[in-house]
Amino acid sequence: MAATEDRLAGSDAERRAALALAGELRAQGREVRVRTFWVRPEWALPQALCAAAGVAGSVLSASHALAGLVVAGAGLLLAIADTTRLAPLRRLTLERATQNVVAPARSSRPFTLILTAAVDRPRGGTLRRVPMPLTLHALALALVTACAGARLAGAGGVALGVAQLVPTGALVLAVGAFLEAALSDADGDDDSAPVAVLALARALDAVPPQRLAVEVVLAGAGGAHALGLSRFVRAERKRRRAEEVAVLHVEPCAQGDPVWWTRDGLLLAQPLHPTLRRLAAQAAAEERHLRARPLRLPAGTGARVARRAGWPAIAIGARGTGRAGEEAVQATVELGLALVARLDRELSPAGAPAPRTSPAPAGSEAIPGSPPVQAVGP
Questions:
Q1: What is the distance between the alpha carbons of residues 214 and 339, in angstroms, rounded to a whole number?
Q2: Which terminus of the chain is less hemmed in, N or C, by CB atoms within 10 Å?
Q3: For residue 318, what is the domain's CATH number?
Q4: pLDDT, tens digit (0-9, with 9 covering 90-100), for 305-356
Q5: Does any domain span residue 50?
Q6: What's the Cα-to-Cα distance from 174 to each of 161, 166, 169, 260, rounded to whole Å?
Q7: Which residues of the chain have a pLDDT value below 70?
Q8: Same domain? 85 vs 202
């Protein structure tokens, strides 16, 4: 996979990367299925339109309160709806082909662990540095709508004008930020998430868990609200019971120390699976050399998709300024292996020892049962 490719969701570069990753999985001895489907990855332009509707509704409400309320309220409802499967505005955008690379489990076990990561890279821009931008956007639209409703009810004065000015200014900035996000190139050249998943799969194939069969899903259109993983989960949900599956999603991990997310979501954050969060905390406490820590700020990871479907799920990655490059990826993989080892022991019958898949003590450079982390080949 070329590290400099602008690998956006639904692009030719993303599809080439998916085929390269499929080749890597086949080289590891896995059966691989590449599933092509169509998505509408453009989410920022519809949100920019909703922000513009909020600005227009705010201005209009000063002289025509009812019209302003209708316009701002429509922007709010459409902005929220476009983060769901309904996505009425996104349905007006262009469709693009993307691919999911699925490597089924190599053996039968009572439970299935699904390792996932996004193939594509999200677009860059200011919004990448804003926490929960869609939540803040919806809040600004709600405040403008409330102010328009107050004007319709007969309220007025300087206080209401000032109260309305703040969210209106935020929406003006949001229009520019969403347009920037819609036109930006891919954010950097970070291939660490799929590389980490390949390393996890190698290690778990070399020393298989007792109770867990390991499946790999490298999903397309991850930067477009995890559309590829959503497609996989919807297709598999009917034939997989939530009690028999767990999802370990890997976020980019090329910079910083390992982290795990405790909650996630686009608009409203929900807790990720309590057992997996507990096991991640135990792994971090016992493997102190990793310097792993929890993240409580949602990031819209793929784990939320599985959690929304009722599947146990957690996301790991790396954040901060500690490790960098292969060292950061390696540490994230070690956190994942430590978590999986504890999950396997939790699922095993009482008294049955689970094979060691957790990393070696502090100072060890290699992952047990796995070659060093490698970049995906061309």
A1: 14
A2: C
A3: 3.40.630.10
A4: 999 999 999 999 999 988 999 999 999 999 999 999 999 999 987 545 444 4
A5: yes
A6: 20, 12, 9, 29
A7: 1-4, 350-378
A8: no
* Judgement on whether residues 120 and 131 belong to the same structural domain of the protein: no
Output the six-digit token pair for 157.
Answer: 């004065």
Nearest to 84 by CA among 291, 230, 253: 230
Bridge partners of residue 268, in order along the sequence: none
pLDDT at position 157:
86
Environment class of 362 (CB within 10 Å of its CB; exposed 0-12, middle 13-18, buried 19+): exposed
Q: What is the pLDDT of residue 200?
A: 98
* pLDDT tens, residue by residue, 51-103: 999 999 999 999 999 999 999 999 999 999 999 999 999 999 999 999 999 99
Backbone dihedral angles phi then psi of residue 260, each to the nearest 5 degrees:
-135, 145
Query: How far from each other are the two terminal CA atoms of the chain, in whole angstroms?
Result: 4
**pTM of this structure:** 0.88
Distance of CA 96 to the CA centre of its chain: 20
Per the prediction, the chain carries an average pLDDT of: 90
Residue 359 makes CB contacts below 8 A (sequence gap 6+) with 287, 290, 334, 337, 338, 367, 368
What is the structure's pLDDT at 108?
A: 87
**3-state SS of the chain: helix, strand, coil percent to 5?**
45, 15, 35
* Distance in angstroms (rounded) separating the CA atoms of residues 227 and 304: 12
Same domain, 112 and 253: yes
Query: Are the CB atoms for 337 and 267 separated by under 8 Å?
Result: no
- Residue pair 319/260 in contact (Cβ under 8 Å)? The answer is no
Q: What is the largest CA-CA distance in the chain?
A: 74
Do residues 367 and 346 make contact, with C-beta atoms less than 8 angstroms apart? no
Alpha helices in 261-325 (DSSP H): 274-286, 303-308
**Structural domain of 173:** 44-93+125-183
| Partners of 112 in beta bridges | 213, 245
**Which among 176, 190, 194 is positioned nearest to 44, based on CA atoms?**
176
Helical residues (DSSP H) of the chain, grouped into ranges: 12-27, 44-61, 65-81, 133-152, 158-183, 192-206, 227-236, 274-286, 303-308, 326-347
